[in-house]
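Each letter names a residue; the fold follows as tokens. Both lines appear below:
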Amino acid sequence: MKLDKEKASAVFFGKAEIPAGYLIITPIGKIYKRIKARYPVLEESKGWWKRMKVNIGSKTALVFKIPPGPCIKDCLEVFNFKATKKIVFLGFCGALNEKLKIGAIAVPRKEKYKIASTSQMILEEIVLQKFKKQGI
């Protein structure tokens, strides 16, 4: 069964528009509110989760506030990746690597995407080896 992305978007975000362009995703309400207070909001909608369109400099971006955890998979299913210019995840990196501290910025390297599995793109080899030793 094929997913009707417009219907899913309407349920998730309160608007039957397939997200594309510049996208910002966060599970942290404080980040969502700070973006809302700092940048002009063009429109806002709410389904299961919150969505707003804002002007950041000369760019228009869609900002999504979703619950933490596996909801990110459902959220990503409705995006149009061919029309997506950039996705910024804010507040999802805490569990990626034990070396990351609060406020750290994780920037994936493009060359890694071409040769790595999803877990290798996110986690360093040291963490993967620890998981394998623990049977995870």
Summary: Strands lie at 21-26, 41-46, 50-56, 59-65, 84-89.
